[in-house]
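Troubleshooting: if your tokenizer reports a length mismatch, compare your output against this known-good record of 352 residues.
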Amino acid sequence: MKFDGKLGLQQRVLPSYRVPFFDLLAQFCEGMSLFAGQARPVEMIAGGKPQVAKYAEAKNIHLFSGAFYLCYQQNFIRWLEEWNPDALIVEANPRYLSTPAAVRWMHARGRKVIGWGLGAPKQSKVWGRFIRQFDAMLSYSQRGADEYAALGFSREKTFVAHNSVSAKPEQKSDDRPLTVDRATLLFVGRLQARKRVDSLLRACAEMESNPRLLIVGDGPERAALESLAREVYPSAEFIGAKHGAELKPYFKQADLFVLPGTGGLAVQEAMSYGLPVIVAKGDGTQDDLVRAGNGWQIQPEDYDALVSTMKNALSDRARLHEMGKESFRIVSEEINIQKMAEAFVNALNSVM
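Known-good structure output:
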């Protein structure tokens, strides 16, 4: 598949984990330019720059915070004039104040604009008006697509590009041996309150099987979590921050990946190593990724559900092994950045 035109793609910020996807997408286009600015320091988002796609830095003006946050990106129209794209993909978020003018600029020249987002609140007139300006919608998940449809956007013009940050895995799922000693549980992520690693430590203390727990990551909660671990689960191993190839040995050692809080870019990576997963429900992207065949979804603040699910998972190691094979199949065949890029190209070609 290929888009025979110049693509413009707007992002509020360009996090490093998105760069491989954007570089891959650029290979499917005649040309592609990214327009993105810098995050606020408090967000602690590691930025990146593409190697294949062109990059134009926006001047982000951040207004207010929390529920009232707004962002205006200076020079959006100037970038459009200079790049002169045949189609534009923008983040579908009404908090980004410069988007409507960019849509009008494109439409005035008979060109198409696609919105890309997580979904939308139900029965929101603001969101309904906002998404109607787009020629098509790209959704991170099926849940998001259903939310756009509930606001009246055409299902025929809505495309699901399953949110992915990982390439199609290369190793075979049967490369993972079935261990015979105690199970190893793995958490990978930033150590902050919303990840609920404290709940994971307490839950491990309730497991009769006394699993090995590897906690890979760093962050503002590390000292407090290490202190808690000394009290409730002293055998927990705090590995520190690891990235890229440094993570491989920990994924290879694990039998089960557990993410008890929100977020979780590492879930797909864990699945690519043939791991079953326990994850907290979030924005809908987990619904397509984590299924009965390869893992469990729990409410992010339901400690009892975490404990019972972990006990269930660890009660049958052979079943865990088979669920890990299904995890590998899902990210190999259905949800990876190659499939995501194909969905983007499909949406682009449908509106041109």
